[in-house]
Specification:
Four copies of one chain form a homotetramer. The first copy, chain A, is an all-alpha fold. Chain A has two domains: 16-64, Arc Repressor Mutant, subunit A; 78-200, Orthogonal Bundle (Tetracycline Repressor, domain 2), CATH 1.10.357.10. Chain A contains ten helices and no strands. In chain A, helix 5 (67-92) packs antiparallel against helix 6, helix 5 runs parallel beside helix 7 and helix 6 runs antiparallel to helix 9 (181-195). The longest helix of chain A has 26 residues, at 67-92. The radius of gyration of chain A is 20 Å and the shape is elongated. Chains in contact: A-B, C-D. Chains A and B meet through helix 6, helix 8, helix 9 and helix 10 of A and helix 6, helix 8, helix 9 and helix 10 of B. Chain D binds a DNA duplex through helix 2 and helix 4.
DNA sequence: AATGAATGAGGGTTCATTCAT
DNA sequence: AATGAATGAACCCTCATTCAT
């Protein structure tokens, strides 16, 4: 599903035609914004984005009234793709855990880290379209996790939120450090390994989750 | 080791005495900066920090020439404490994996996520003092990881960098979302579980690291 | 006289025909501009005017090269009508003072306050057409005032400029306050009463013009 | 009463001391703003005001958070002085009509036209301090007008609002035309003459208020 | 001819940093 | 030493005007 389709079916709109060059500009802006947000964070100057997109600053404002609006478009773009990946993974991959794995890595490739936090707890708090995509992701992931849980592949105490937050955090660009996809992929693999059962602790290694959970509780206090 | 000791032994300096109230102000500023950086990111207005510290803005500049300088001091504070925790964990905890676990949770409690990125790749690239602390952390962690590796507790393909980056990322505050220590602790536990051997794959669950590594290679291309 | 006639006789122009719809657009723009200038001042965004006229912004620029040009057209429109009113009042109303009264109220209804200042001192300093209309107004008013003066109806120390400026000012919209024609009409009546002779002072009331003129001189110093 | 006193008695405030140079700057800014507003309208660039005051633009923002805030200060300054003039005129001038006359001319000299509209209908809608000064003006004028009415000096159908609006409008700078105090004073004199009774019409001149009121009603329709 | 889109210049406001008390 | 105040540079956003369909 493309973001355009996500917003509304074109036919139902009044706008006579979204002039080809304008549409191309819009896409360029969103793509540039995504990259700049990844590199410099969501507080990056919009002028930088405009320059990267090869347009004047005012043109950016013609397409997006303010920073939030642009951010929303980026989130929508990413979330549409991520949701697509989730559904495709669920449809095409028989093993649930493998599907989850495929999903998180695809999400990282979609720069999901650029908009971390925005897809949590409903995501686009102020955008119905984004919320729809978030729900697509949630629904698909929940299904996959349920199946994996029932198959005894992943621990029962892991929820959707854990997956989404961890994924977003690990995929986030590190300020001051050049962004490394490789790290995100690698650490997500480690984390996914941690989700699996039998929990490593059950394999005989000393110092299991219980042990930590004690310490953890202390910290939570 | 306190940050003051970390900087230099006082005796070798000219400054006759660092007036008690000035020293107190300095500490207040660093503490306030740490908290503000955690809450609003490292781009937060310095005036906000000064206000939080209960001092005038110019006083902040008397102590720290510019933003970088203040940031360095915060990093140094955190890294000193984190290094202390690392060494204490190594000294007091017999089991290496348990020591690592203790260390990462203590680091989160020290708000290590606030300065993520600054302690990677040598850390304070422009600060010898910070570099010293980073090396303390690195040395201790490397020792612990070596011991754990040799004891067959953690996988052989995991390096120090993996631990430090993951820890920093998972402990980072999520913009727009209220910071939750609990999430960081929880997800670090999951990640640590993923570091352990026998790898979950070896426990019989389908879809091991090898499988992923294939996909991963594709992504890396 | 319509503004079109005022500009030039069509026959002398090259333009083959001013396509009916184009002419209609032009009129709409000028009317919209007049209203917007009244409501939001002469600094109002031109896009607002275009939208109000129901046309695209570029169409506005096809008709009027820049803001000044549009403003001139509005002034011309208003001044043509105001001049018409002046001449009609002079022709149809026997009593000169009554004719003046009729004139000023008609002028207010033509939104003369919207372009205040532009019709003073020659009016459209940069427009021959406007200047022509200004002269029509001036000539007619001068005649009427002369007649009223000679008939002993109005004071001898009142000039055309007094009338025009006062009228413009009192008819001006008050920023932040919803425009009230009623106030303008009311206060113009009061002012016209002040023009009359025998001066109120002569009617026996204390504190006449002479008295004030003293104070006034002080202020002028 | 100075604006400072109008805001609050200094003693009751926490602010340790309003540093002399800062206070001087504040006064300079308000004075510059008043002049610029008179010359170029209340939409004039704030940078222009800062330059005129001989300070940096940011200093202006330190003293006044936004344009409204600055405007309020100007209004307060003017209204305090105007209210002082009103009370002084009432106290020192025996004849009520003469007092009113003195008042309006003093108000013009205080550049009351710069803030026209802001003193109508309660004045500083968002400022209690301004509202207080407006009420001082209103109360004094109402008293003066009452006395003049009872003494048969002015017409009974004239209200406070008529006086205030007319005064503000006539004293307003004409955009594009250099501001002329003389015109304002002159036209206010004429208007005040119009307020007097016996109404000029009663003096025998043809075309009185009744006649107009007919036309007027037509217009109002 | 009409229009949506593009754009550069300019104004409002914030903030890191410097100055004067 | 501590502070309130001052400042210029940078960013966001608007708008008059031009361009391309």
């Amino acid at each position: 599903m493309t973001p355009e389709e996500a917003v509304t079916t074109r036919a139902s709109r009044r706008s006579p035609r979204p002039r080809a060059d304008a549409a191309r500009n819009r896409d360029r802006i969103v793509a540039a914004a995504r990259d700049v947000f990844v590199e410099h964070g969501t507080e990056a100057p919009l002028d930088e984005i405009a320059k990267r997109a090869g347009i004047g600053n005012a043109t950016l404002y013609r397409h997006f009234a303010d920073r939030r609006s642009l951010l929303r478009a980026v989130v929508l773009l990413i979330m549409c793709r991520v949701a697509d990946h989730a559904e495709r993974a669920a449809a095409e991959t028989v093993d649930s855990l493998t599907a989850l794995r495929r999903f998180v890595h695809d999400a990282v490739d979609e720069r999901v880290g650029a908009v971390c936090g925005l897809l949590i707890d409903g995501g686009g708090q102020d955008s119905a379209e984004v919320a729809v995509q978030c729900r697509r992701v949630e629904a698909t992931c929940e299904t996959l996790m349920d199946r994996a849980r029932h198959a005894g592949q992943i621990r029962a105490d892991i929820g959707l939120r854990d997956l989404v937050i961890s994924m977003s955090q690990l995929a986030r660009p590190l300020p001051g450090i050049e962004y490394r996809d490789a790290d995100a992929h690698r650490h997500l693999d480690l984390l996914l390994d941690g989700l699996r059962v039998p929990a490593p602790a059950a394999c005989g290694a000393p110092g299991g989750a219980e042990e930590r959970s004690v310490t953890y509780t202390e910290h939570a206090a």
